[in-house]
Design brief:
Layout lengths: L1 E5 L3 H13 L3 E5 L2 H10 L4 E5 L7 H10 L6 E5 L4 H9 L4 E4 L4 H18 L4 E4 L2 E4 L4 E4 L2 E3 L3 H12 L7 H7 L11 H13 L8 E4 L3 E4 L4
Parallel strand pairs: 1-2, 1-3, 3-4, 4-5
Antiparallel strand pairs: 6-7, 7-8, 8-9, 10-11
Length: about 220
């Protein structure tokens, strides 16, 4: 899951980013409203956390433009403005939840998880995209830079799982349980072999590698430079 934090207070931003990363999320941070809007419109995020009062462009304007662009990712507003009228304005602008400052990280995390669960059940995902790598779940096709990639069924399942967890470290155990349906480690190199084959197909003929091995942890499909 990839989250975007748009927050100009460095202390608050560091606190949120650190906590969310420790909770297993991929996190990008924008320090002002315009930079945040540019990221929100150009990248694919599962959830946005937006401060209301920001340099260059305020949070409500960001949310309105994101919704006008037909981006349906849930939005959580963070704000020191906690009056009922302020919360109503935030929700009417297109946000899904509103959390006032100061806040406990445990509550922020609980709200993030609830929004993600709600969004996942309300949206049937038919396409996955990581950088220029795209997967059409209905047509069962994979392309990179518009070029069709020929994947074997197991490679397709492996890539689908990695794309759904882009920006996160995916462990061997996660892959064994979710791609191979093993609830134990058979002590074979089956994962390494398939990762190697997949890397050859999605990275070899392209300038920018997307699939990396995180030593001692697992693998990551990442679209950040």
């Amino acid at each position: 899951m990839r989250l975007l934090i748009i927050e100009d207070d460095a202390t608050v931003a560091d606190y949120i980013v650190k906590g969310l990363k420790e909770s297993g999320y991929g996190v990008d941070h924008a320090k002002d409203g315009q930079a945040g809007l540019d990221l929100a419109l150009s990248e694919n995020y599962d959830l946005l956390i937006v401060d209301r009062m920001l340099p260059y462009l305020d949070g409500l304007s960001i949310i309105q433009q994101v919704r006008e662009a037909d981006i349906k990712s849930p939005v959580l507003i963070l704000s020191a403005l906690g009056d009922v009228d302020d919360r109503v304005k935030g929700l009417k602008a297109g946000s899904d939840d509103y959390l006032t400052k100061p806040f406990a990280f445990a509550e922020l995390l609980a709200r993030v998880e609830a929004l993600l669960r709600r969004h996942e059940t309300s949206v049937t995902q038919t396409r996955l995209k990581v950088a220029d790598l795209e997967m059409d779940l209905l047509a069962h096709k994979v392309t990179r830079e518009g070029k069709s990639l020929n994947l074997q069924p197991r490679e397709y399942r492996l890539l689908e799982y990695l794309m759904k967890h882009a920006g996160q470290v995916v462990t061997r155990t996660m892959l064994l349980e979710n791609v191979w349906d093993y609830h134990f480690d058979p002590q074979t190199n089956v994962i390494d072999v398939h990762i190697s084959r997949l890397r050859q197909k999605i990275d070899k003929d392209f300038e920018r590698p997307l699939l990396s091995t995180v030593r001692g942890a697992g693998y990551m499909l990442n679209d950040s430079d």
